[in-house]
Write the structure tokens for this entry.
Amino acid sequence: MKVLVLEDDPVSMAAITHDLEQWGHSVMQSKNSIEAFNIISKNLDINLVIVDLKLPNENGLDFIKDVRNISKKIPIVIVSGTVNTKSLKVAQKYNCKDILVKPHAKERLEKILHSIKK
């Protein structure tokens, strides 16, 4: 799978990227939504986008809205330090596949990937 990870925390980015690459996936990384949106615009064959909702000086929700404006089909997984009602509503409203809680559990990420591949 071709996966884009939008995450500003270097530790989380490294952990998610490591797991994905270990499982044979191609990973593109971005620390901000502008760069991530440009990557998607040039790579519409992306199989999954993993998005941190809380980014410095930006909002992951706005990025998710922008992605949905160009593609309703790209699976999106939200990454968040906490799961609350707002996160759940965002996930439902924008047809996100799942929420991955930080620090992420490798097994949980693997289950999410398997559900997306089906």
Remarks:
- The chain has one domain: 2-117.
